[in-house]
């Protein structure tokens, strides 16, 4: 009897430990690849260090310095403008193409595959592709414009302050809209057609059906995509770095590039880490604000 009770106890213990066994690999991965780098970055921000043999504690010096650093504040403003315009572009194109693909048209499957292609290409490929297209000398865009006499001489799309930032924004919009498009399309296809037919009978026009049926039904999806897309765009680095490296001047100097240069060009690791902590806090607050504003009532 005693052995039977012990066996039952062992079985209960195993059953209780099974869920933890399943989540352990994922937990360790998150701790090693996410939590540890974040905590180590926060630790570095309190030191004037070369990461080898120099560790001078400076407290909150770099946090205070970042708030008064004109370059960092400028990069935050550029990042804000970049994020708002790119995310807005993603949602405009996403809604347009999702609504188009939801129609009963020929070759709809082929069009879906074509429209999702920008998201499938790596950032490196897209950046170098458009860097070649927008090249001042020999770029296909300048060649076409001069061929049709739209411009008389090559335009420095990525080497002129007035055009570099808009070009980077347009390329980023083109690269990222498929994610929003696919999510919105999936959400639209879950909405019952009976709701639209009832709204038509009641005299609702297309805009009213969009505002009072489509958008409320897509609210949970839109909230998730808006948070993810905003955070991803806010910390965009690869595309801008490969196309302009933050130039010309500081016209495309977003916060990610500003932090990268401080850390790996000027070797100000502590200062760059403090700036990174501010970006981490901002990204967290973005999620909190969006969840509060767009929560499902």
UniProtKB/TrEMBL annotation:
Superkingdom field: Bacteria
GO CC terms: plasma membrane
Compartments it resides in: Cell membrane
ABC transmembrane type-1 domain: residues covered: 76-290
Keywords from the UniProt entry: Cell membrane, Membrane, Transmembrane, Transmembrane helix, Transport
PROSITE patterns: ABC_TM1
Mode of membrane association: Multi-pass membrane protein
Gene Ontology BP annotations: transmembrane transport
InterPro entries: MetI-like, MetI-like_sf
Regions that span the bilayer: 20-46, 80-101, 113-134, 154-174, 210-234, 269-290
Family, similarity comment: Belongs to the binding-protein-dependent transport system permease family.
Protein name: ABC transmembrane type-1 domain-containing protein
Native source species: [Clostridium] citroniae WAL-19142
């Amino acid at each position: 009897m005693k052995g039977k009770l012990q066996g039952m106890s062992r079985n209960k213990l195993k059953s209780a430990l099974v869920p933890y066994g399943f989540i352990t690999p994922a937990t360790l991965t998150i701790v090693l690849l996410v939590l540890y780098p974040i905590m180590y970055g926060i630790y570095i921000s309190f030191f004037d260090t070369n990461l080898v043999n120099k560790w001078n504690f400076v407290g909150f010096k770099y946090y205070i310095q970042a708030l008064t650093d004109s370059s960092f504040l400028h990069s935050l403003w550029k990042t804000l403008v970049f994020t708002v315009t790119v995310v807005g572009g993603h949602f405009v194109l996403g809604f347009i193409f999702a609504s188009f693909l939801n129609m009963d048209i020929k070759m709809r499957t082929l069009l879906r595959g074509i429209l999702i292609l920008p998201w499938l290409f790596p950032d490196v490929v897209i950046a170098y592709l458009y860097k070649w297209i927008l090249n001042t000398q020999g770029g296909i865009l300048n060649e076409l414009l001069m061929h049709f006499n739209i411009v008389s001489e090559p335009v420095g799309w990525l080497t002129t302050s007035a055009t570099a930032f808009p070009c980077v924004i347009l390329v980023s919009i083109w690269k990222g809209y498929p994610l929003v498009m696919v999510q919105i399309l999936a959400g639209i296809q879950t909405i019952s057609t009976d709701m639209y037919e009832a709204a038509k009978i009641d005299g609702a026009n297309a805009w009213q059906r969009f505002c009072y049926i489509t958008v409320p039904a897509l609210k949970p999806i839109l909230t998730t995509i808006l948070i993810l897309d905003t955070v991803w765009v806010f910390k965009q680095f690869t595309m801008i770095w490969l196309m302009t490296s933050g130039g010309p001047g500081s016209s495309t100097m977003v916060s990610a590039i500003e932090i990268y240069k401080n850390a790996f060009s000027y070797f100000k690791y502590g200062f760059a880490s403090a700036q990174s902590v501010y970006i981490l806090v901002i990204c967290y607050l973005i999620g909190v604000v969006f969840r509060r504003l767009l929560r499902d009532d």
